[in-house]
Amino acid sequence: MAICYTLKSVGLNLEVLLNCTPNQKLMGTFRYLMTVGMGTLIALSDIGASFGQTEASGDRLPSPAPENASPSEETQDKTAPRGGLQAQGVTPTIENVPEYLTPNPNPLQFPTEPDEVEIVGTQPLTLEQALQIAEQNSQQLQEALLTVERNSAALRESRAALYPNLGVQSTLSRSNSTGADLGNQRQRQQLGDNAPPAEGGSTSLDGGVELTYNLYNSGRRSSQIGFAETQLLVSELDLERVLADLRLEVREAYYNLQEADDQIEISLSAVQSSEQSLRDAEALERAGLGTRFDVLRARVQLADAAQSLTQAQAQQRIRRREIARILNVSQVVDISAAEPVEISGLWNLSLEDSIVLALRNRAELEQLLLQRELTDYQRQIALSALGPQVSLFANYNVVEIFGDDLNLADGYNLGGRVQWNLYDGGAARARAVQEERNIEIAETRFGQFRNQVRLQVEQAFFNLRSNFENIQTSNIAVDQARESLRLARLRFQAGVGTQTDVLTAETELTRALNNRLRAIVTYNRALAAMERAIGNVNEALISRP
Asked: DSSP readout, 472-488?
């Protein structure tokens, strides 16, 4: 047995070795001891796995707690792995949607011929279908899912440190040294025919099995596992954030498309009304009851309405391509809205309840709290460099030289190794202080984003209230504008009104229709913004009209 103590510069490296080469009579006993030793080492790995959860607690600096930043029980529960994301429709099964909407599965493909980008058809979609297609085709969502899978693999990698490492090696070699060959030549030269047979080369086979285990590392292993677990939770919350952003983007694009479609109808109605006014003015001119001036004004009004219609048609094409990009559908398909513009729902919570619910549900707030935990794990990993590192090892070796009439030879090593870095110039504690400052930065960002969430909820709530009132007001205004235009046209046809009255009434009707359309679409956008500001919205919070 040999016990070696080695002191290296400012680090302590203590190595205890049992190096034995037994004789043949004790070989069976040694092999038995080797087997028992390896079994004991494997058992120690299970003990170390549980022991590693609380190791090096005395070396940790106290972690500052955020003031009024601790999540409620509901919020803490949300940091668990969210298997419910699949149930929320991350990878949905889409019904009644044509297959030609599916994009090319090759993300590196791009068109090279004009017919590959020529629009060959338009597919009407409901809002729900658009949301499902977006969730299935979204590249941002796919990237977030891949990030979750990557962090899950990183967690499995970090947990592998709880178990020992086992390795085997074997070498088969044939050697014939130049010294032996020179000796044979001298013997033949000196002794001639009486020289003994020449010594040939030797063939040997050796192999070994080595088992190592890091028994104690001052909390580094448990901190690395905790870091990986928290990083996985952060990526799952980020998946939820990406999904919420995607749903908001799709809703806004769909409402923009609906607005563009209705704007065409309003502009077309204005063109038809201007054509009717022009016909009336020309009829009165032919009857001698009107003037050329009235006809010219009607033609100018018609030209303005036609220009507005052309711009609305161009805006519709832009909105269709915009939602097609978001949905990531085929290059040759346009998307149109299959649902009319109407109020999408009524928000049933008060402003105060909405703010509290948003602060409890938002994934970004939970991410910031988890970011604080990640930084604390980094601090613990930095401090673990100041503690002792204890590892165990065992190896078993065999050697066989063929043709030497000797039996197989074997031996083993069992030992433990302790390493303690007593002084590193303060580098480890400096890294720990950096992470403490990062913890304080994460807490500051939490407070900033908390205020931002409240502002988002308040903006959405006030927009909901104001636009709901505007919808009621605009409905009355549209009815009054239509009646005003009808009376103005009757008065003009009867010769008791003027062309100016008709043109003014037409302009007021167009403005009233635009105001009502804008109020409904803006209300729907505000409702979508409210759902995004809240986070996970229960369907019971929104009542359908």
From this structure: HHHHHHHHHHHHHHHHH
